[in-house]
Amino acid sequence: MHNNENEEHWTDHAICRGADPDLFFPIGYSAPVLQAQQDAAKEVCANCPVAADCLAWALRVGEPDGIWGGTTPEERRYLRRTAEAPARRRLPVIVVRGDASESEHASAA
């Protein structure tokens, strides 16, 4: 919510303002029609100056439907899963006796 009536919000600059909401919330269509509609909505998002803010908001609130910040619900679920995944550490390199790299080092010495 706005703290001040005159304060701007990212939604004030969204180019989808006033657009047909059905474009961004496709339901009940066959796969090819759904894909075409998602692509059309993503084209609008691709030219939007606040797409990153829109996506950040949708991820923060867990928006389950529609195209937000140029992403589908499935794409946002993937982004949330990867963001919540624990950090992966690199495994230590283990040199086994007789390893090719070890014999190369021995011959170079």
Low-confidence stretches: none
**Largest sheet, if any?**
none
Structural class label: mainly alpha
Oligomer state equals single chain
CA-CA gap between termini: 69 Å
User: What is the residue-mean pLDDT, rounded to a whole number?
Assistant: 82
Global geometry: elongated
What's the gyration radius in Å? 24 Å
Number of helices: 5
Helical fraction equals 40-55%
Q: What is the N-to-C succession of helices and strands?
A: HHHHH
Tally the beta strands: 0
- Beta-strand portion reads under 5%
What this model shows, in words?
The mean pLDDT is 82. By secondary structure, the protein is mainly α. It starts with 20 loop residues before the first helix and ends with a helix. The protein has helices spanning 21-24, 31-46, 51-61, 73-84, 100-108.
Give the gist of this structure.
This protein has 109 residues and is mainly α. The chain has helices at 21-24, 31-46, 51-61, 73-84, 100-108.
